[in-house]
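Hi support team,

I've been running sequence recovery on a batch of backbones for a student project. Most finish fine, but this one hangs at about 90% for roughly twenty minutes before it completes. I'm not sure whether the input is malformed or the queue is just slow. I've pasted the structure tokens below so you can try to reproduce it. Let me know if you need the job ID as well.

Thanks,
M.K.
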């Protein structure tokens, strides 16, 4: 039992979506089953499958859901920029549209903020207490390398900078301008948070990774871009 109760409907969830017709209805069901969730903002980044039609169907009859669509594919960062501009809740979380991250872990992610200790919380796949699907060795090495490189410039001691699960107080996010359109969002926002006087916490989370055959999208080019973003947003800005 949490020492501090998590208020009902305190959380706004932002889901960037691209070609996730197969899993979207499952993750939306899990998100909306959480009592902490007060609103769900989904942004379709010009999917080529039936994602938009699925979003329209899911939004019918539930006032918590609002949906938006990009007419041109712009990337995850751009979809998050659109979503964050629309969300109204005081606490915000990023949720991927696949099934790699479990909404049942929202309470542990929210606890440091609700307890008055944190302004931002990252969910770490590498702290070790949650279940993890065994997958790509070099992908794991790349994630750890990028996190350590980011830490060298931000002077933070994060274990998982590239994690999807990031929770923010609304006033923190309102001060951050997201410039990156793709996966460079992760090092960008970490660099910008490091320059703010906010309390950043990490909590361990489970990770149910998927293969590229199952729809995983991030690739080596995004890793190269992440290195550039670490340098750009820590040194140039």
């Amino acid at each position: 039992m949490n020492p501090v109760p998590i208020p009902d409907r305190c959380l706004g969830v932002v889901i960037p979506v691209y070609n996730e017709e197969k899993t979207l209805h499952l993750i939306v069901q899990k998100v909306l089953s959480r009592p902490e969730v007060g609103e769900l903002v989904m942004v379709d980044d010009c999917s080529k499958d039936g994602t938009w039609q699925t979003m329209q169907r899911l939004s019918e009859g539930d006032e918590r859901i609002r949906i938006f669509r990009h007419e041109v594919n712009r990337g995850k960062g751009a979809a998050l920029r659109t979503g964050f501009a629309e969300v109204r809740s005081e606490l915000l979380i990023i949720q991927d549209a696949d099934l790699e991250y479990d909404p049942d872990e929202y309470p542990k992610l929210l606890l440091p903020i609700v307890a008055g200790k944190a302004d931002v919380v990252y969910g770490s796949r590498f702290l070790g207490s949650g279940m993890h699907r065994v997958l790509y060795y070099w992908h794991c090495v790349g994630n750890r390398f990028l996190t350590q490189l980011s830490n060298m410039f931000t002077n933070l001691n994060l274990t998982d900078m590239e994690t999807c699960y990031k929770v923010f107080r609304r006033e923190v996010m309102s001060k951050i301008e997201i410039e990156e359109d793709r996966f460079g969002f992760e090092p960008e926002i970490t660099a910008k948070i490091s320059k703010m006087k906010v309390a950043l916490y990490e909590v361990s989370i489970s990770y149910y990774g998927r293969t590229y055959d199952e729809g995983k999208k991030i690739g080596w080019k995004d890793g190269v871009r992440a290195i550039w973003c670490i340098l750009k947003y820590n040194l140039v800005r």
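--
Follow-up from support: It reproduced on our side and the slowdown came from queue contention, not your input. The longest helix spans residues 137-154. No action needed from you.
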